[in-house]
Every structure is written in structure tokens, then in C-alpha cells.
Amino acid sequence: MPRPDQDYHDVDVAIVMESTYPYLKGGVSAVVHDIVVGNQDLTFGIIHITWDSNAPNEDLYGMPANVKWVRPVYLSMSEHREDFTTLTPRMLGMRAKARTRLANRVFDALEGILAGDMSLMWDLYDEGMNPRTRTFPLWALLGTKEFMAAVRDRLTGLGLPLVDTFWLLREYFSLACAVMSEDLPKARVYHAHTTGYASLLGAAAARQNDTSFLLTEHNLYVRDTVNLMLNRSMALTLNAQAWRDFDVTAQERAWMAWWIEMGRFSYPSAEAITYLYPKAITEAADLGAPVEKSVIIPNGMTVRNFDGVYQQRMHALEEIMTAAEGTRPWRLVYVARIVPIKGLSDLISTIDLLVHQRGVTNFHLDILGPTDHFPDYYMMCREKARTLNVEDYMTFHGTVNVREMLGDFDILVLSSYNEGQPIVVLEAMTAGIPTVGTSVGGMEQLIDDPLTTPGGRTWQACGLLVTPDYVRGMADALQKMMGDVTLYERFAHNARGRVENFFQLEDAMGAYNRLYKELGGLPISTLAETIENGGQQPIPVEETIPASARTAVGTRDDQQAAPNNAPTQDLVAELMAISEDHVRVDHLSALPWTFDPTAPQRSPARYTSEHRGG
């Protein structure tokens, strides 16, 4: 792990991550790697938020040369002895009356956040936290009797004993110190890939360096964190009033407020907020995100990388269309970690229903994915399959190279309770494989919603979706697809067509390129100019910026490059003008985050994306 105190060169973009890229694999990490590889004309740094210096530190991706550094930021107070744990009230340099005023300013600023006024807290940040401007160490206030008096007088409704309140506030102070007191390397744009600690740090870093802050919500971090903490279904939504309204313990209410209000505090600092799909904009608005800053930047696939497997699937499609009914077994595939949020137990019940109640037996389910993330759940699934006498209809493969096996399968089955827009679905679509899945996250836009190109062609669905935890509905959908080869053929062709027209990786990378340059004040050159100057620009970015009726990257069909002498438009203004009603397609792939119950249980402060699986 690089040292926090080493020299760091200025970069164009600093990616802010929680316990993911480049040291842990996962969907969000894969997207970030695509971003840095696909934007070779920009320099990057990685601000890697993790618990302590013992965290994984092996580069699992082989970062390209345009990533100039990885800067760790540690949350554990064991890494902050000098700047937090050893502070004393004397270091404030204040008399009692001044300390009383400061303590009340802290609570005034907190109440300001609840009221939607973030300026009071940012003023405190500049005076007592920002390493470039602070005149006193705000964290030293925690040990004063004046602060405790303010806690007693102003937190009367918290419902906790004073001692418990003190230790809770100490934990909040320590986390804020870890994230906001760092002197951070300079970047033109700080791009946080979640709310929570990453967005808090990104906003503070941009303020330190007088540059821009960009936020991406691969999934709704605040919603997922609270649902994990309360052991709620990951399919449930959340709003900004939840911490006031839910019937929970005082500790749980305090942590709900911490996560929800941290998001509300960070949102206004972002120049733009990118999402995977339009519905996420509405859900984020319920948590306090400003709709007018919303941008949809799709992710996608490099289609040519799947040409071989696509040809394999087209030969299989011919066999499916010509085989006598019931003579060719269907190959189903589940691709995910074996953890509760992915719903494999429900899928086993679906297999039981098909086999023993409906007599449907001409299929086999291959289960691809790691089994060691939640061993008890994995063993429960194996035992359930044995007890229901469906073991012969499924094979557990463990961790494998999915792309090498993808062409062997006819239908992708996704039984998850929560997703963003999973990359495995995009991979299956690119290969021409239909999906039967749950209607969660961005799956409707990916699989089911009609998508219309600017040229007027509409691509229909490429699979069937059901509600999560609906065993009979999943059985109905699988039986319908396996029983109607004409429908299956249409889904297969639509899957590939939707990717070719709407979900191309190069388009998404071009949109990020333009957005980074717009926010960072960098010139946006044409492809011809870049080549003439000897630079690398694999993406004709002019082709990736939408007219007002498209998403952030538009579509491939009938798309034309802007003339080389066309004036540069204000990208952010154009993208923000796209309302949800105008958006036709969206797709940013990211595996969902799930808490690993086998990991050591600590306070809710450690519900970072490390524990969600990246």
C-alpha cells in the first residue's frame, strides 16, 4: 500500500473509491478500470478509502500508465493517533466562552444540514478541518466540558444515555476526521463512485483545491447501507425521512441519520451526478439528491470481443429452432456469488416447482460463482437441493472464467433482490442470450423497456422479468421461454441488437471523457486533432454526446459526428436538460454491494463497499 505522505503529482481526475479498485475485484472496480483504460488522454489518481493499512494492497487489474498514483485514506483511528486521539482541549487555544460558542456552532451546523443549509458546516470545515485553511483543530473540542454540556442541552431527543451519546459522537468525529482532515493531492476533477465516505471526501478535496466534484451512483449507497444495517430486504426503497419515521432503536436511528444526512450534505457540492438508469434519479431525489444535476451515462460492452461466442450462440439457435419439441435440453446458467441477496435459494425452489409439480425436466442449471463469501448459505443451498431432490438438475462450478463458458448456455437466470445493471446481463446480451430475471434496479431498462434509436427503430424486450422472491412467477417465465422457441429467437436477436445500438462501452467512455474535460476546464479536441498531435484517443467523443432527446451517450444507429469546426457546447448543461421523460436507455453495469456476514462485525461505520462486495 502506498504511503499517505509520499509525493503525488497533479492529475486530471482523481477517482475516489471505498475499498475497491484496484485491490478488490467487483463490478464497480471493473467500471473504473474501463474508465482509466478508455481515457488514455487523461491522467488519473486513485484515492482508496479503506479501514487500515492491513487492508488488501495487491493490484488485481494491472493499472495502466496513465494512473499516476494510489493514495490510501484510512478510517480506523489506529491510523490517526497524531491528528485525533492525542488532541487535547488546550490545542484549541480558546477560553471557556469561546469553546461554548464553538460547541453550539457545531450543533447549529448539524441542524443546518437537516434544514438544507450546508454552508454552516462548510464554514466550520474551513476553520477547523481543512488542512489548508484551519486555524484550530475542531476535533479537540470533543474532550471539553463545554461540548458535553452542549450535547446534554441540544440532543435531548436522541434517547441515549449521555455516556453512550459521547462515544457515538466520538465515532462520528473520528470518521469525519479521517475523511475530511487529509491534505489531498490536486486533481481537476474528483470523481466519487458512491455517496457515503467517498462523496464526503470528494467534496472536501474539491473544496481544498478549488476544483470540481463529480459523483456517480452505481447503486444507491445510502439505501443499501441502511437496508443492510437494519436487515431489511434489499429490494426496499428508502427516503430522507426514514431515520425520523422508522421504528428502530436509538442507536439505529442515529446511524440511519448519519448515512442519510451525509448523503444530503454531499449532494449539493457535486457539479453533476451520474446514474445508471432513470428510476435511480427518482429514488435518489427521495434521499435528497438534486434532480437538476442528474446525468445518465451508460456503460456497455466491447461488442467485437463477443463475436466468437455470438457465432456459437447463433449455431445453437439453429439447433433450438429445428429440434423436435422436448428433445433438446435447455442449458440455464446462474452467474453470481452464492450469497442471500442473489436469491439462489428461491431459484432452487423454482427448479423444484418445475420438476415435481409441473413435470418440466428438459433443462439443467449451471451455477457459476464463488461459494466462499457466505459458506453457511452455500451449504444451505446444497442441502436444500438435496432435500428437494433436484440435485441432478444443477451443477455448482464455483469460480470460473465466465466468458469462456458463456456460449454453452441458452438462458441467463438472475434471481437477485438487488442489482444496479449487472455486467453479466450485458455480457449475455452481447452473446445473444436471453435473460429471465427479477425486476430490480435497472433491469427493466436493460431487458424490458422498448428502446428507440434516433433513426426510429424500436428494439423490444430481450427477456422476461418477474418480481423478486416470486418462485411461481420465475417458474412461469422459464416455462414460457423454454416452451416458445419463436419467442426465444426474437429475444436472442433483440439482446444483441440492444447492445449494438445502446450499450457500447466506447460510447460511455467518450461521455466520461467529455464530462471530465468540461468539468476540469480542459480543451475538448476532435479526433482528427488528437491523431494529428500524436495523442491517443480511441473514441471519437464527438459522436458520443447526445442531442437533447438522448441519454449521455446517445445511440449508434444514425449517429453522426459533429463537424470538426463545430463550437464546443456546454456538456453539463446539455446533459442536465435531459429529463427522465426524455431518456430512452440507460445502463451502467455494477455488481450490487452485499455485506459479508462472515466478516468481523464492527460498528456500522465499517459498512463500506468492501463489505458489499465492491
Keywords:
614 residues; alpha/beta; Rossmann fold; 3 domains; six-stranded parallel beta sheet; 23 helices; 15 strands; disordered C terminus
Uncertain segments are: 530-603, 606-614
Strand segment count: 15
Shape: globular
User: What is the CATH class designation of the largest domain?
Assistant: Alpha Beta
Counting structural domains, the number is: 3
Beta-strand content estimate = 5-15%
Strand order of the largest sheet: 3-2-1-4-5-6-7
Integer average pLDDT: 85
Largest sheet: 7 strands, parallel
Q: For the terminal residues, how far apart are their CA atoms?
A: 18 Å
The CATH homologous superfamily of the largest domain is named Glycogen Phosphorylase B
Helix content: 40-55%
CATH topology of the largest domain: Rossmann fold
Radius of gyration: 25 Å
Treating each run of at least 4 consecutive H or I residues as one helix, how many helices? Answer: 23
Instruction: Quickly give the CATH architecture of the largest domain.
Output: 3-Layer(aba) Sandwich
Output the structural class: alpha/beta
Question: In short, what is this structure?
Answer:
By secondary structure, this protein is of the alpha/beta class. It is built from 23 helices and 15 strands.
